Amino acid sequence: MARGKIQIKRIENQTNRQVTYSKRRNGLFKKANELTVLCDAKVSIIMISSTGKLHEFISPSVTTKQLFDLYQKTVGVDLWNSHYEKMQEQLRKLKDVNRNLRREIRQRMGESLNDLNYEQLEELNENVDNSLKLIRERKYKVIGNQIDTYKKKVRNVEEIHRNLLLEFDARQEDPYGLVEQEGDYNSVLGFPNGGPRILALRLQPNHQPNHHLHSGGGSDITTFALA
């Protein structure tokens, strides 16, 4: 079955385009290698895909630079010289920018002002005022942030101080932490018979704490000796 003729135009589907590029690139490199081996030719192919990836084939017997040198000699052009001139021109522009910036810095420091006329001095003065304004705004912002941070720290310290005062007052009321009113028991500290003891008082349901206590069987008072 004969293959249909492919219309040469841009493949719109990105996936199909990348697959076709990869297959044809490999086929082209294969043909270039065959030319190198069969015909002792020096072949160089540089390809850049639509995604910006660089692919290159170079005959094993030469380097890319040697092939470019051979190209320049054959065609009669000097690619390196034109490139060098462009680099030199770019270097001159960068030096001019650097020189102007250095002069502007010296002028803002009050130096190299003799060559400036009245209009240039006015412009320099305005630039300095604008710079000072920006510096002040930045300074005030930094100071404001520092003040906010300090206030937050003060509030935290004050809160800690209040909590400590509350805890201290609670300990003043119950220095030993022995008086508790939880469940059906009240505990108090006593010193019967010359020695410290804890008295645990159990309150019966519907009984008030000021009712008379009784002893004997099923007594409501239990004592615990302190070690």
Automatic annotation (TrEMBL):
Pfam families xref list: K-box (PF01486), SRF-TF (PF00319)
MADS-box domain ranges (all copies): 1-61
Name the Gene3D superfamilies for this protein: Transcription factor, MADS-box
Q: Which gene encodes it?
A: LOC107802634
What highest taxon heads this organism's lineage? Answer: Eukaryota
The family database entries (SUPFAM superfamilies) matched by this protein are listed as: SRF-like
Q: Name one GO molecular function term.
A: DNA-binding transcription factor activity, RNA polymerase II-specific
Q: Which residues form the K-box domain?
A: 84-174
What is this protein called in UniProt?
Floral Homeotic protein PMADS 1
One biological-process term from Gene Ontology?
A: floral organ development
